[in-house]
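Quick one, T. Sequence first:
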Amino acid sequence: MTSTLPALDGEGYLIEPKDWDEAIALTLAAREQIDLGPEHWDVIRFMRAYYEERQIAPDARHAIRRLQQRLGPNIDARRRLFELFPYGYVAQACKIAGMKRPRAWSTG
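Structure tokens:
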């Protein structure tokens, strides 16, 4: 499934996060060679809800905390986040979730 993409910056991030939808996420994920599964979607939907509430993208520690709650104490959630998005939270998760390119922040 592909979608017509709204305006992207030079690195492939949406210029306006409000332009995002799940079809766009699928297109952006395909560009990153990621086949989105349930855990990806859980992280992405968490990120979108966080953004809607606070008007800022969550940094990796928030997504890791979310994964830890979902996966349980016996799973290394930080490692799992980077298995889901192997080129990094900022480089892939933020891009696919329709966040603007973060200037600088914690990666976990």
